[in-house]
# Entry
Amino acid sequence: MAFNIYHDPANVTIGQTPIAGVESIVVSVRRQEFCAHGDGEMHESVARFTAGRTSGTITLVDPAGAAALAGRTGTLSFTWKDTKAQADKTVTIAGASIGGYDATVARNAASGVTLPFIAESAPVVADSQ
# Structure
């Protein structure tokens, strides 16, 4: 499993739709195990990883805005400052699809929303222009 947590991303969009108030984005790339064994074998004679799956969550502060984003599809894109390189990076994930959302409104009207997403490709990170 590989994952990245991007704090304070900017210019977040899915397709052509901007996403405001984003606090963080978590991206996870996993490969599922495929294992098999024959009769009488004590260990698996086949042990492989299948194709990768990209998924993650977008955390933001606007429950009403999150409701409008549920079901959106397209390329997920955002910029993020790489603290090691001290340069802005652009992250793009093609074929992203946002599922529903989990919203919390807490004491003093503080709110938080998590939007889960899945995608058809791995993230691509490039220097911002």
The mean pLDDT is 86. Residues 63-69 form the longest helix (7 residues). Residues 2-127 form a domain with the Pnp Oxidase; Chain A fold (CATH 2.30.110). The longest strand covers residues 22-36.
